[in-house]
Design the sequence.
């Protein structure tokens, strides 16, 4: 089955170009990192708002592709992205394959809640391309079938310091 290749983003504001004279050098360093090799230059965004907007494109793509409804159910005080036809919670996770360090991030409290509720994850690998994303591949996995052993503390100042996090290399779980 072929995947739709592009998802349009109507609200994504791409990072400003490094040639934009309205942006100072310090601001450019905060918003992006530039990699140069020979005649080509790669501008990689570090703007969390932009990455978050790409993630918001992944959610409707996944719920169109899989039998999930994007309704943000709350289970045990935790909010998830979608529910299946039996009401089980699912979380949609995206990994930007052309990002600096592609990963899927998981939270222990959410993972345990999903496993206990027989829910799971819709995992989407995508490439960010300006105002769009191109989906490279995707899969679903039940939370109880995804063994995560590298839980770490995100730090006391993190807004989710009450739970541990794990980052998994997308190649480890790619279909």
Sequence:
């Amino acid at each position: 089955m072929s995947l739709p290749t592009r998802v349009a983003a109507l609200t994504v504001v791409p990072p400003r170009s490094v040639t934009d004279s309205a942006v100072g050098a310090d601001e450019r360093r905060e918003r992006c990192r530039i990699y140069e090799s020979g005649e080509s230059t790669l501008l990689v965004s570090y703007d969390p708002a932009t990455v978050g907007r790409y993630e918001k494109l992944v959610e409707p793509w996944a719920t169109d592709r899989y039998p999930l409804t994007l309704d943000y159910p709350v289970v045990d005080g935790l909010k998830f992205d979608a529910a299946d036809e039996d009401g089980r919670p699912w979380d949609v996770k995206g990994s930007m394959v052309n990002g600096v360090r592609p990963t899927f991030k998981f939270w222990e409290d959410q993972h345990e809640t999903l496993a206990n509720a027989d829910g799971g994850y819709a995992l989407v690998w995508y490439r960010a391309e300006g105002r769009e994303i191109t989906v490279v591949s995707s899969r679903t996995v039940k939370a109880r079938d995804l063994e995560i052993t590298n839980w770490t503390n995100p730090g006391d100042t993190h807004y989710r310091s009450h739970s541990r996090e794990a980052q998994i290399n997308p190649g480890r779980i790619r279909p």
